[in-house]
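Lecture 7 notes: from sequence to structure.
We start with the chain below.
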Amino acid sequence: MSEKNREGKRTARERLAEERAKQKTADKRRRVLIVGASVVCVLGLAAVIGVIAANSGKDKASGPVVVPSGANGQDSLAVPVGKEGAKSTLVVWEDFRCPACKAFEAAYRPTIHELTGSGKLKVEYHLATIIDGNMGGTGSRNAANAAACAQDAGKFPAYHDVLYENQPEETSDDYAENGKLLELAKKVDGLDTPAFRACVEKGTHNTWVDKSAAAFRNGGFSGTPTVLLDGKNIYQDRTMTPAKLKQQVEAAAKG
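Predicted structure tokens for the same chain:
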């Protein structure tokens, strides 16, 4: 083999090695970002237990529990996305004000959409309001109510994504303003209707949201997001990546 050919093969190997190293570094950064954001939420929750307790009755909704259309599971607190017959179920507890939840969504959303779209995964979203307790305000609850109103209109997945894409700073309670939530609804085709506006402005599902938040507090969870794949907490798995999630779901789909 000529020296030139040897050099060419070595260069190709080096390029391949560099690409693999870059991908490994990117995956590690993504995991660190998600885990790091989660730690912030968990520490915030632990540090303000007294605040949560003090605020537990504050701004609480009253009136009957109005369940969003199609919600199911225990006490009808889960908003389902995907085909009922999917072999894998992802249970996600989220707070629309939680930065760790936004980090999770940014990293995993494309994979989750792909798997729900192909019928291999069903997601059950549960809505929590821990940042309202941590930071004060009602943005977590109001955003959750608006998302439930979007579920009534058959637009939950799209509006859910819009809320995370436009999430304000954790210390800002922008989502407490119905005007902001209605403005964001315009980003979802067909959602900005009189029925949706009335649902948001009246807080139609506020009591349901409070019930969901109570279920989160009583569930023994350490923070948001809490992500369970077929009952196993995958968010605590430091080796988990979107690719690994896809691999596990596809393996289950094959049986």
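Points to note: The mean pLDDT is 85. Residues 89 and 122 are 5 Å apart (CA to CA).
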